[in-house]
Amino acid sequence: MNTLQDSEENKNGPTDLTKKLLLATKAAGIGLWEYWYKENHFICDDVLLSQYNLTPSTFGGTYEELMEYFHLDDKIRVYQDLKDAYDQNSNETEFRVIWKDKSLHYIKAVVIVERDSEGNPEHLIGTHQDVTPTKRIQEVIKDSELHMAEAQRLANIGSWSFDFKKDRLIWSDQLYIIFGTDKETFLETHKSFIHLVEEGDRNFVEQTSIYTQQTGEPFKIEYGITTSSGEKRVIEEHGYGQRDAEGVICKLFGTAQDITERKKTAKIIEESEAKYRTLIESSLDCIFLAVKGGNVLTANATARHMFQMTEKELCDAGRSLVDQTDPRFQVLLEERERTGKARGELTFIRKDGTRFPAEASSVIFKDAEGLEKTSMTIRDITERKLAEEKVSMTSAALQQTLTDLNRIMTSSLDIICTINEDGKFAKVSAASEKIWGYTPAQLHEKITIDMVFKEDVEKTMKVASEVMEGSPVHLFENRVVHKNGSLVPMLWSARWDMDHKLMYCIAKDATEIKRLEEERMKIVNDLIQRNKELEQFTYIVSHNLRAPVANIMGFAEALENNSYSENLKKEVLSQLAVSVSKLDEVTRDLNEVLLIKEHVNDVREELSFSKLVENIQISIQNLLDECDIKIETDFSEVDKLVSIKSFIHSIFYNLITNSIKYRSLDKCPFIFIKSYKSHEGTQLIYSDNGFGIDLNKHQHNIFGLYKRFHQHIEGKGVGLFMIKSQIETLGGTIQLNSAVNRGAVFQIYLPFQTAKA
Amino acid sequence: MRENYNMHSIEQVIVIDDDHPSLFLCKIILEQKFANKKIVTYNNPLTAIDYFKSAFSENPIETLLLVDINMPEMSGWEVLDFIIELDQEIKKLITVIMLSSSIDPKDEQKAKDHPSALAYLEKPLNIEELEEAMNIG
Predict the structure, then answer these.
(1) Which of A744, A573, A747 has its CA nearest to residue A670?
(2) DSSP for residue A704
């Protein structure tokens, strides 16, 4: 381990001066080192080692070891500087050393080269001085300057100083940029500055400068300039006077800032503010601006008018302007909280306490300071509300009318309908479904006349055209074809509306009326029939019953007459017996006739025409054989019939025996019976080739009781009467076509009957 | 029809009735009253009409005609209608009396209203009633 002390001892000892120098260097913190080329020997002192945070005990002794501590970025440069030192005999350098504790230290080094006789470098002597604190200060100053310039640049603020005694004006770099002036051409005099200032501002700028030169008072002024490129700018300048040791003002210092943009913006803001203010003030809606959940900040003229309050009163009133009992208020507040905006109707309160409805919309926004504010516009909708109410009332009345009409249309038992010019249904009430089987929708646009039964079309068309000519019709009767094919009798009332070109009709289902009418007609007919029967009965009593009675009375009287011979009396007795039997016969016939009515409720059973006729033929076989009469039948179409057996038997029996009784004597007698299907019943044609009846003479009483039409044949006049009574009791009809010697054709119609117990 | 009746001027009596017992009764009663007169009964009015048309018209005599009303093929009224059509000379010899078992007042009224019928008598025939009718009529 070699130290300087060692070298002193090794090299013949240092002189006194040398010793003193060494002490001085040590005190100045200068480290020393030496290097001998030839011997490749390096030594250094403790001061130098301390600069590497080393001690003699921890130092290995070679310069290479020290160089390990050099900052990597500096190593090559230090080598280069050392090389340069060989050429120049000495050199200075600076480098950084990184201690083991990672701390950085700045070293300033000087090296001197000593050469041998041949001029080759023989011995190097160097010093190391730790310049870390100086270096740090320098860096700080440098940083400050940079920061200053950067700050000025960023803030667009320049600084200046003015030595008014020497008329020397010094500007920072930024100030040149602000004034748009070249550093090279600026004369650094007050005049050259004033020259840049707008003419109008020059006097006031100079006055300010002079005042401050005299008083030192700080100032703040604004003035306009024109840059060398001709651009107009606005400058804000602050300044003050600096006093020397004697308190005399010697210099002015200050800053200047380009506020052109700020001015412009301010102007724009001012203008737009004025614009918005005008807008807000002139708005017909109320406009409020408020701190969210707090005070009202501003309110426009409409607001003042609407609430009848001053702006201050409005601001103080705040939320009490709103009727907070209105549940919509809370809803709106919640919505605004959730979505940032809300709109709806609320109730507001005027100064005098009166309330009015209004449409309010409110928005939450953040102002420039980030404060949450709200704006609210309110539109008085009292008028609108009134109008709405009116409309709603009218509409409600209309709705009610419509509802009533609808109710009539749906609940009417009659069909209410309108028919247009083309004869199509325009509107039909619900009853159509029940009466005609078609829903109103199915009938819509359907041609009305198509619904009418074809036999009634002509008269319906005639009435319809009369109605369209202006004469309303009342209770016009026709039949409409039901969906199921049946006929529905209808009663129509109709009127033509010229204005709407519509026929307003009410169509009543006349089925029941018709039925009642038919029932009434039936009752009337029955009564007429009954009356006729009664008349007939009276007639029978007065004639047919009376005839044998009269005879009996006469014979009784004759028997009392003593002048009559015994033989004559015997004859009288015999005639009396005949009359008595006649009386008996008539009473029996009457009984039988009267019994027909009793049979009405007899059991209906299924009968066979062919079997019935066969049975009758068998029962009167002798008679048939005697008269040589032929009976032909054709029951192929209908053979079965549900009816009262005794009646049908009686009808056939009476017809056949009549045919036998009144058979033609010069013709081969025959009977022909045929059955047909007929409308809801059975048709029977019964014909013979007998005498026939002179219908011209007897048209009205062929079926009367005890009506006899043939003198030569003994007839009671009961058969046809019985037949007719029985057929009518069964709801049927009988008609006769006949002429003298042309035979008789009976047409019998029997309606279907249901079997009943 | 006739102004004066005289039972004794009657030369014959004709009865038209379809009822045999009635005819028989009329005959025996009339035979007692008109003992020497001709009594003719007709069961069929048409036969009687034929008689009036032919034999009677050729040799008309004072006749009492009793006609039943209710008969088949030709009623008593129709017989009356025939009589009224006869020549006046013949017709004036015939005295018509309607004889009916009917107790219907309408029949009596109709007979009284008929210009050819003298009277209406209810059966059975009674001589007293007949005489009375003829005298009054």
Answers:
(1) A744
(2) S
Give the SS3 label for residue A418: strand
Note the pLDDT of residue A613: 92
The pLDDT tens digits for A565-599 are 889 999 999 999 999 998 898 888 888 877 777 77
A604: which DSSP letter?
Answer: P
What integer pLDDT is reported at residue A487 of this predicted model? 92
Cβ count within 10 A of residue A538: 13
Q: Indicate the pairing of strand A605-608 with strand A502-509.
A: unpaired
Cβ-defined contact of A547 to B32 (cutoff 8 Å): no
- What pairs with residue A737 in β-bridges? A745
Residues A227, A179 contacting (CB under 8 angstroms): yes
The whole-angstrom separation of Cα B75 and Cα A706 is 13
Closest CA to A361 of A423, A254, A287, A440: A287
Cis previous bond, B124, omega within 30: yes
- Residue given tokens 């102002």 in the structure block: A367
Looking at beta carbons, which residues of chain A come within 8 Å of B103? 542, 546
Partner A, chain B 20-79, Cβ-Cβ below 8 Å: 20-22, 24-25, 28-29, 32, 44, 46, 70-74
Q: Digits of tens for pLDDT over chain B (137 positions)?
A: 444 456 678 899 999 998 899 999 999 999 988 888 899 999 999 999 999 999 998 999 999 999 998 887 788 999 999 999 989 888 889 999 999 888 888 888 988 888 888 889 998 999 899 988 887 65
User: A539 to chain B: nearest residue by CA?
Assistant: B104
CA–CA gap between residue A325 and residue A335 (Å, rounded): 17
Chain B residue closest in CA terms to A717: B72
DSSP string of A607-660?
Answer: EEHHHHHHHHHHHTHHHHHHHT-EEEEE-SS--EEEE-HHHHHHHHHHHHHHHH
Region for residue A524 given its phi and psi (left: phi exceeds 0; alpha: psi -120 to 50; beta: otherwise): alpha
- B53, B90 Cβ separation under 8 angstroms: no
Please name the residues between 700 and 729 in chain A that touch chain B, using a CB distance below 8 Å: 707-712, 715, 717
How far are the Cα atoms of A26, A34, A98, A124 from residue A48, in angstroms, in the given order?
Answer: 9, 11, 14, 15
Chain B CB contacts of A581 below 8 Å? none
What is the rounded CA–CA span in Å between residue A255 and residue A174? Answer: 10
